[in-house]
Amino acid sequence: MTVxxxxxxxxxxxxxxxxxxxxxxxxxxxxxxxHDPRTFLxxxxxxxxxxxxxxxxxxxxxxxxxxxxxxxxxxxNAQPVTIDVLAVLFVTSRLLYIICYLAxxxxxxxxxxxxxxxxxxxxxxxxx
Length: 128
Fold this sequence. Notes:
Blueprint: H1 3-24, H2 37-42, H3 46-75, H4 80-103, H5 106-126
Helix pairs in contact: 1-3, 1-4, 3-4, 3-5, 4-5
Subcellular location: Membrane
Keywords: Membrane, Signal, Transmembrane, Transmembrane helix
Pfam families: MAPEG
Protein backbone atom coordinates (compact mmCIF):
# COMPACT_ATOMS: atom_id res chain seq x y z
CA MET A 1 0.00 0.00 0.00
CA THR A 2 1.15 3.50 -0.78
CA VAL A 3 1.53 6.29 1.75
CA UNK A 4 -1.43 8.02 0.08
CA UNK A 5 -3.68 5.01 0.67
CA UNK A 6 -2.63 4.94 4.33
CA UNK A 7 -3.53 8.64 4.47
CA UNK A 8 -7.02 7.77 3.23
CA UNK A 9 -7.34 5.36 6.15
CA UNK A 10 -6.17 8.05 8.57
CA UNK A 11 -8.66 10.52 7.08
CA UNK A 12 -11.42 7.95 7.52
CA UNK A 13 -10.53 7.64 11.23
CA UNK A 14 -10.24 11.37 12.03
CA UNK A 15 -14.02 11.96 12.37
CA UNK A 16 -14.14 9.36 15.12
CA UNK A 17 -11.41 11.16 17.05
CA UNK A 18 -13.64 14.24 16.91
CA UNK A 19 -16.59 12.12 18.03
CA UNK A 20 -14.66 11.03 21.11
CA UNK A 21 -13.90 14.65 21.96
CA UNK A 22 -17.56 15.59 21.42
CA UNK A 23 -18.96 12.79 23.54
CA UNK A 24 -16.47 12.59 26.36
CA UNK A 25 -14.97 16.07 26.80
CA UNK A 26 -17.67 17.29 29.16
CA UNK A 27 -18.14 14.01 31.05
CA UNK A 28 -21.89 13.91 30.43
CA UNK A 29 -22.01 11.11 27.85
CA UNK A 30 -22.92 7.79 29.42
CA UNK A 31 -24.81 4.58 28.74
CA UNK A 32 -28.21 6.30 28.84
CA UNK A 33 -27.15 8.79 26.12
CA UNK A 34 -26.01 5.91 23.92
CA HIS A 35 -29.65 5.02 23.24
CA ASP A 36 -30.01 8.24 21.22
CA PRO A 37 -26.54 9.71 20.66
CA ARG A 38 -27.65 12.06 17.86
CA THR A 39 -30.00 13.90 20.18
CA PHE A 40 -27.21 14.12 22.75
CA LEU A 41 -24.78 15.48 20.15
CA UNK A 42 -27.32 18.02 18.89
CA UNK A 43 -27.60 19.48 22.40
CA UNK A 44 -23.90 20.09 22.92
CA UNK A 45 -22.39 23.52 23.59
CA UNK A 46 -18.92 25.07 23.46
CA UNK A 47 -15.89 22.81 22.95
CA UNK A 48 -17.96 19.63 22.61
CA UNK A 49 -20.21 21.24 19.98
CA UNK A 50 -17.16 22.39 18.00
CA UNK A 51 -15.76 18.86 18.18
CA UNK A 52 -19.05 17.53 16.82
CA UNK A 53 -19.01 20.11 14.02
CA UNK A 54 -15.42 19.12 13.16
CA UNK A 55 -16.61 15.51 13.04
CA UNK A 56 -19.38 16.37 10.59
CA UNK A 57 -17.05 18.37 8.36
CA UNK A 58 -14.53 15.53 8.39
CA UNK A 59 -17.22 13.11 7.23
CA UNK A 60 -18.13 15.55 4.44
CA UNK A 61 -14.63 16.06 3.01
CA UNK A 62 -13.19 12.55 3.32
CA UNK A 63 -15.02 11.05 0.30
CA UNK A 64 -13.64 13.80 -1.95
CA UNK A 65 -10.11 13.17 -0.67
CA UNK A 66 -10.43 9.39 -1.09
CA UNK A 67 -11.79 9.80 -4.61
CA UNK A 68 -8.99 12.20 -5.54
CA UNK A 69 -6.31 9.79 -4.30
CA UNK A 70 -7.88 6.83 -6.10
CA UNK A 71 -8.36 8.75 -9.34
CA UNK A 72 -4.79 10.06 -9.26
CA UNK A 73 -3.54 6.52 -8.70
CA UNK A 74 -5.68 5.05 -11.50
CA UNK A 75 -4.78 7.72 -14.05
CA UNK A 76 -1.13 7.10 -13.27
CA ASN A 77 0.31 10.27 -14.81
CA ALA A 78 1.53 11.68 -11.49
CA GLN A 79 4.67 10.49 -9.75
CA PRO A 80 3.70 8.26 -6.80
CA VAL A 81 5.82 10.40 -4.48
CA THR A 82 3.84 13.48 -5.55
CA ILE A 83 0.57 11.76 -4.67
CA ASP A 84 2.02 10.63 -1.34
CA VAL A 85 3.22 14.14 -0.47
CA LEU A 86 -0.15 15.69 -1.36
CA ALA A 87 -1.93 13.07 0.76
CA VAL A 88 0.30 13.72 3.78
CA LEU A 89 -0.24 17.46 3.36
CA PHE A 90 -4.01 16.90 3.21
CA VAL A 91 -4.02 14.83 6.42
CA THR A 92 -1.86 17.50 8.05
CA SER A 93 -4.33 20.16 6.93
CA ARG A 94 -7.19 18.14 8.43
CA LEU A 95 -5.36 17.82 11.75
CA LEU A 96 -4.74 21.57 11.77
CA TYR A 97 -8.38 22.15 10.82
CA ILE A 98 -9.57 20.08 13.78
CA ILE A 99 -7.19 21.90 16.14
CA CYS A 100 -8.43 25.26 14.84
CA TYR A 101 -12.04 24.17 15.25
CA LEU A 102 -11.51 22.95 18.80
CA ALA A 103 -9.60 26.11 19.73
CA UNK A 104 -12.36 28.26 18.18
CA UNK A 105 -9.97 29.98 15.75
CA UNK A 106 -12.60 30.61 13.09
CA UNK A 107 -10.57 32.59 10.54
CA UNK A 108 -7.57 30.24 10.72
CA UNK A 109 -9.94 27.26 10.46
CA UNK A 110 -11.41 28.67 7.23
CA UNK A 111 -7.96 29.29 5.77
CA UNK A 112 -6.86 25.74 6.59
CA UNK A 113 -10.11 24.38 5.10
CA UNK A 114 -9.43 26.19 1.81
CA UNK A 115 -5.88 24.84 1.77
CA UNK A 116 -7.22 21.31 2.26
CA UNK A 117 -9.71 21.71 -0.55
CA UNK A 118 -6.95 23.10 -2.76
CA UNK A 119 -4.95 19.97 -2.03
CA UNK A 120 -7.88 17.78 -3.07
CA UNK A 121 -8.14 19.69 -6.36
CA UNK A 122 -4.38 19.44 -6.87
CA UNK A 123 -4.61 15.65 -7.17
CA UNK A 124 -6.51 16.16 -10.40
CA UNK A 125 -4.01 18.67 -11.80
CA UNK A 126 -0.93 16.57 -11.09
CA UNK A 127 -2.62 13.64 -12.83
CA UNK A 128 -3.16 15.46 -16.12
